[in-house]
Amino acid sequence: MNDRSYRYYALDRHVLLVAVYNEIDWSCYIGAVPGVCHAEEYMSVAESGSKVSHWMARPYFSDIDNSLPWRD
After folding, report:
1. Which pLDDT score, from 0 to 100, does residue 64 have?
2. Residue-level pLDDT at 2
3. Torsion (CA) 22, 24, 69, 56 in degrees, nearest 10
4. Residue 57 has what pLDDT?
5. Mean pLDDT of residues grouped by 10 in the chain (72 residues)?
6. Taking every pair of C-alpha atoms in the chain, what is the biggest distance, in angstroms?
7. Measured CA distances, 28 to 13, 17, 25, 35 (Å)
């Protein structure tokens, strides 16, 4: 029921933004990665990255349902 989904956006080869969302809410994290394979590295950012503000995340993930509230 509460399965999480993930989307990532590379700001740089070594910096990822990762959106974590479900049917209830969403949030976004930023973190450094080795830059070898983003498809394998994004999860470390989702688990231990720094949370960014909604205003920073929204432009990169504008296609995530606007009715979902931001997770504080």
Report:
1. 87
2. 61
3. -20
4. 96
5. 87 98 95 98 98 96 88 86
6. 34
7. 18, 7, 11, 19
> What residue segments make up the domains of the chain, in order of their start?
5-57
> What is the number of other CB atoms lying within 10 angstroms of the CB of residue 1?
5
Number of residues that this document lists for the chain: 72
Quote the CA–CA distance of 53 and 72 in Å, as a whole number: 9
3-state SS, 5-41, equals EEEEEEEECCEEEEEEECCCCEEEEEEECCCCCHHHH
Strands 5-12 and 15-21: antiparallel
**Residue the block writes with tokens 């983003």:** 38
What pLDDT is attached to residue 1? 45
Q: Which pair of tokens denotes residue 39?
A: 């498809």
